[in-house]
Amino acid sequence: MKKYEKFILPGLVVAAAILLYTFYFAPTDELGSFADFDPNSHASVDIIVEFVKEKGIVRDQRQGGSVFYVKDISGRETQVVGPLMLPDGMEVADRLKLTGHLSGSGFHAHGVSLN
Predict the structure, then answer these.
(1) 29-114, superfamily in CATH?
(2) Which has the least CB within 10 A, 1, 17, 93, 98?
(3) 44 vs 62: CA distance, rounded Å
């Protein structure tokens, strides 16, 4: 029994770390919320959103970017300014994963991928 006592505390710490990762840090496929973003921060953060197909995508060759609209989990519709090169099949995608930051009333996306 004395042999096993020294493994109890490290075992509990490992179990707590696994639970913390599983329920807090693990990636999820749920829609995110723009309300969680700090509008004063320029740190790039990932968010999963719903693509608003009805408004389409406007590509501006001169500016080198694309403009489209997305909805978050609360239904907030937001304009996204993203890169000119977007993933194939984006026009028919339901969900997108954006990497970027809030900029004024819109979202500046540094990366766009299909989810």
Answers:
(1) Nucleic acid-binding proteins (2.40.50.140)
(2) 1
(3) 25
